[in-house]
Amino acid sequence: MGSSSQSLSLGEAASRFLVSLPPEAREVSQQEVYSLARWYGWERPFAELTAPDIANYAERLSLSDADYTKKLELIRAFLVYAKKEGWSKGNLAIHLRPRKAKPSPRILPGQGLPEVVSLTKQGYAELEAELAALKGKRPQAIDEIRKAAADKDFRENAPLGAAREQRGQLEGRIRELEETLKLAIVIDEKQGSTSKVSVGDSIVLRDLASGEELRYMLVSPKEVDPTRGKISSASPIGKAVIGRGQGEVVEVAAPVGKLRYQIKQIEH
Description:
46% of the residues lie in helices and 15% in strands. With 268 residues, it is α/β, with parallel strands linked by helices. The protein has three domains: 3-95, Orthogonal Bundle (DNA polymerase, domain 1); 121-186, Helix Hairpins (Orthogonal Bundle); 202-267, Transcription elongation factor, GreA/GreB, C-terminal domain (Chitinase A, domain 3). The strands form two sheets. It has a five-stranded mixed sheet with strand order 5-4-3-7-6. A two-stranded parallel sheet has the order 1-2. Strand 3 and strand 4 (213-219) form a beta hairpin. Mean pLDDT is 81; it is low at 107-111.
């Protein structure tokens, strides 16, 4: 790794990576890649990023997002590119591991009711559509297992193991969606007369350090979709802006220090 690579900042590395992408992929990746750069410091040398830094970043995302696989994929592509360009000594991407979701605890008598899930009208409809689509895939998944099981050599039957794992993931997601929809309440978007930020709102934030403007939609952790700018209301930014008004300045604690944003616009 040359001296120029050792002095390359995280922000510069992020910009070079994004320039290397086709326009559509660049638009999808920019928000999340820049978020990583802001989190650990725009001017921090990329070479100083460590395996624990990357593992902690993945863990931070998992605390707020129910499904954060897309975010991890975007960051992983950036880290793989960095290794290829010689900006890091090791492959940091291998430390970006998703944390397995914990199974929902059983509710025993006397423990009270499970927590209600707040969803936007659009989010509820999207989860319903996903559930219907996944249920439609059940016959195909069962058929894949049957075909793979037809191979009598079970000792090295990798297709059978893969088919069973895929079926397990399918059924797990179906159960998760059914439980979410059963507990969900749809947010009344007509109650948008308040000037304060709430779940379901779209906001424009101005980074007071760089001047960059960021557009987000605050949604339930169950609706998170980084490729469409949907962030969790339980994320660090979400927690900072909920209940705040247009023009207010909010602070988000990050390893690099306090990130300060001004709420420029609220769309209910």
